[in-house]
Amino acid sequence: MKSLLLLITILLLPAGASALEVFACEPEWASLVSELAGEDADVTIATTAFQDPHRLQAKPSLIAAIRKADLVVCTGADLEIGWLPLLLRRGGNPEIFMASDFVRKLEVPQVISRSQGDIHPQGNPHVHLDPRNIRRVAVALTEQLAAMDTKNAVDYNARLADFQERWSDALASWDQRVMSLAGLEVATHHRSFSYLANWIGLDIVATIESKPGIPPSGAQLASLLERLSVNPPVVVIRTPYENEKPSLWLNKRLSVPAIQLPYTISGNAAVTDLFTLFDETLRILEEHQT
Amino acid sequence: MRTISVVVALLLLGTHMPVVHAQDLEDEVAELRALLTEVQQNYEARISDLEIRLAKAEQLASGARREATEAFDIAEQTAIDQSAGTSAANTFNPALGAVLSGVYSDNDGFELGEAEVNLKADVDDKFFGNLTFAVGEEGGEGEIELEEAWLQTTSLPGGATLRGGRFFSGAGYLNEFHRHVDDFVDRPLPYQAFYDGQYKVDGLQARWVAKTSMLFELGAEASTSGETLLANFGGDIGASNSWQVGLSWVKTDPDALIGDGELALVDFVWKWAPNGNSGLRNFKLQGEYFSSEESGWYLQGVWQFLPQWRAGLRHDTVEDADRDSLMLDWSPSEYSRLRLQYTNDRVFAETDDQWFLQYIMSLGAHGAHQF
What we know:
The complex is a heterodimer of chains A (290) and B (371). Chain A has 290 residues and is of the alpha/beta class. Chain A has helices spanning 2-12, 27-37, 60-68, 84-88, 131-148, 153-181, 194-200, 218-230, 245-254, 274-288; strands spanning 20-24, 41-45, 71-74, 95-98, 185-188, 203-207, 235-238, 258-260. In chain A, helix 2 (27-37) links the parallel strand 1 (20-24) and strand 2 (41-45). Chain B is of the alpha+beta class. Chain B folds into two domains: 2-79; 95-364, Beta Barrel (Porin). A 16-stranded antiparallel β-barrel of chain B has the order 1-3-4-5-6-7-8-9-10-11-12-13-14-15-16-17. The longest helix of chain B has 62 residues, at 22-83.
C-alpha cells in the first residue's frame, strides 16, 4: 500500500522543472521577485493583501508550497514568526532571504516586554512602504538570485539595471508629489504605515491600537476620540486586512474620512505591481488632502 | 521691454509729425530697422542664456538627487552596520517559554495545572532540539515530568525529516498539540480512553512530504511503545477554506495504553476565515474517530466571533458513554486566555453538570502553532 502510494506520487511529480521555485511570504516581495527574475522563477505567494501577515497559520497548502521552494523571500523582523518557522521544519530546505535585513528599521523598541503589546524587538517590520527600501532590497535580492542561479546571473543583473532605472524615474516623480503631502495629519489603525509616513513626512497623530496587536478597548477609544476631537486628523487610514470597525467608528464621530490604502499588491484593483502600489497610495492620499 | 517702449514711442512720435521730408523718413526707417535688429539679437541672446541656465539647473538637480540618494544609502548602511548585534555569553541561549495554567471546577474546587517549561533552539546547521518539562504536584509531592525531549533534522534532502527522543506521536490530530492550546478544558473522551490524554513515545519518527501542490505526507514511528504509520493530506479551497485529513495506524504492546494493542484513527480539520484572514473572525471544525476493540469519536466546532472572543461546542463519546461541552473564551492577547466551560457528562449512570473556569498564560518565547 505504502509503496503504491509512493509510486503514484513519484509519477505525479513535475518532470525536471528548471525555473527557480520561489516562495514569497507577502505579495510585495513576490512582485519584486517577478521584476528581477522574470521567467527564470516560479513564484508562490503565501498571503494576500486581505490576510494579516502576522496572523497566518502554517496551513497544509503552505507546507506543500515550501517543500517545493528553492528560495524563501520574506519580510523577517519576526513578522512571520507565528507560522514561517513551522513551515521550514516540515521537510523543505530552501535558502532564506529576509528583506528587512537590508534596510534600517524604524521604531526599534527600547523596552522589550509583552506588556507593550505584540512588539517586534528588531523594529517595525512593515518596511516595504518606503520606496527607497525597495531599491535597497532589490540589489540584495538580485545578488541572492544570481548566486543561486549562476547561469542566469547576467539576466538578473540586466533586469536589476532596468528596474533601478524605472524605479529612479518613478521615485523622482513620487518625490515631487510627496512634497505637497508632507505634514498631512493622519490616524492609523496599527503601525503598518510607519515607513510610508517616514518617507512622505505624514504626521501620524494617533494609532487606534494603543499597543500593537491588541484591539482597543471602549475606554481607550473614548479617550482617543476626546483627544482627536480637539485637533482631528485629515484622514484615518488602514490596510485591507485590518478591522474596519474602529476606523469607521472614528469616521462617524469625527466626520473625518476613514480610508483603506492598498498596503500591498492587489490591495485594490488598480494595484498590480510595486509601481502602481505607490501611484495609488499617493493618489488616494492626494484625494483627501485639503 | 525698454527697447519696445522706445520703438513704440518713436512710432507714436512719427504719427504726430504732419510734415516730413523724404530724407528724414528714410533715416528714421533705417534707425528703426537697426533698433529692431538690436531687439531681436538681444532676445535671442537672452533665450539662449536662459536655456543654458535651465540645463545647468537640471544637471544640478539630478546631481543633487543622486547625491541625496547616495547619502541616504550611506546613512542607512551605517545604521544597519551599527545595529548589528553585540555578542554576550547568553546570545545563543535557546528560546525559553513557560505556560502557567489553573482550573476551578464546581466539583473539585481549584486545581493548579502543571507549569510547563519549554526550551528550543537550532543545535547546529543540521539539528533542531526541543525540551519540555512539566512541574507539578502529585499527592502533595513535587514532581518534574519530562514531556518532550527530541531532536529533529533540519537539512535532509528530498522532503524527509527524522525526529528522535521523546515526542508526542503523530497518530491523531490533537495528539501533537500541547494541552495548553486545546479548545476545551479537558481532552475528548477517546483521547482519555485510548491515550490517557496524550500518546508520548520514546523512539524515532520519520516523515516525508511529497513535492506536490497539495500536502501529501507519510510517516512512520518505531518506539519502545510500538509502531505507528501515518498519512496526512491537506490543501485549500479558495482563499477562505483550508483542510487536512489524517489516517494513522498504531500497534502497541497489549498492556500499554490501548485496548487490544491495535488502533486505527481517522482525523479531519476544516478551517474557515473570510478571505483567509483569521485574526478577526474564523471557524474551525474538527473530528477524530478511534477504532480498536472499542471505538470512540468526537466532533467539535469553535467560532471566533470577535477578535478576542471564541465559543465552542463539542460532543465526545466512547462506547456508551458520552458528553456535551460548551465553552466561551476570551483572549486579551495571543499570550493569555480565560475560559468558561459547561459540560453535561453522561459517562456514569447519573448525569453530571460540570462548570469550569480556566486560565492559560504564556510567558516568554511562544513558538508557532501547527495547523
